[in-house]
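Q: Convert this sequence to structure tokens.
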Amino acid sequence: MAAEEIAGAAPRRPASAGAASAELRVEAVTKTYGAVAALRGVSLEVGAGELLTILGPSGSGKTTLLKVVAGFELPAEGSVVLAGRDITEIPPARRNIGMVFQNYALFPHLTVERNVAFPLEMRGVRRAEARERVAAALAMVELAGYGARLPAQLSGGQQQRVALARAIVFNPTLLLLDEPFGALDRKLREAMQLEVRRLQRRLGLTTLFITHDQEEALILSDRIAVMSAGRIRQVGRPEEIYERPENGFVADFVGESNILAGAVVAADESGVELELEGGRRIRAGRHEAARPGARLRCLVRPERIAPGTEGANRFSGRVVETVYVGTSYKYRLRTEEGLELLVAAPVRGGGGGARPGEAMRVAVAPADAHLIGGEA
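A:
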């Protein structure tokens, strides 16, 4: 049976953010626990068929946001609209939302088949139809033939597949994934990430994914919403979040970074000249707040710092620390001006990397120096 036959509908196509076909809208949601504000006026849209990831550190509010969407928590203010229907005060069981948790939440005394069939039984689906849907869902997650086993007889990855099959078997309007791979080892986690992404695209399921893992968010997402302190700091495609963060928090939280503070000396159509602490000047790309005297920060990703002297921004210094990570060497470089730069250089040939104490020259192209405003 095809994926769309499991769902009972044709696969949906992803929609652009803000489009009229947005499947989920969170509107100005605030949630407090006593004097603590867990969510501060959060607004968000997820397009039909889109996978949007909520990314943030512990305590950022991402799990509280998921609970509000799922119906496990009521917001103090704001609303949640799913497929054009206000579900803010509707009980979780009536929201037609599928969920997958980190701890799987399987019934240990029920077989795999009974676990997957449970949401169908709750919806009064006829037994013959339920068997067909369960078999198709298990086939979709590559567990055909495992229906008679108990959860304890499965590996962690297989249990996660059962949880996923149970979440999609009833054709949910929305799929919520709450850090579902946190209990898996790295290799299995990476395999499950790709498997979930393929299944989500095949079914066209509108999906909200919660994680604190930046790499996982970049791999899986159509778009990412970065959260901190109960607020959404930036929403964008993975490459936008990584390459063009809008504030210091996103720049520092997502990926490794060199953030250099300075004052604007000159700005024109070709870019900005920034004077760093200590008097060193660098050229960077354009920024709307770049006016002489304005304080800005400059983000340079370690992999965009090239060994050699080919570039407008050249630095000389000595290697303080060298770390080999398989595909690249990571260097901590202290420049002649006293700056510390993290440099990532790909491994070439069989030679070793630069040793601590060795001299090194590097350069950064202005296009690879991204300016950030004053907001933290």
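The mean pLDDT is 89.
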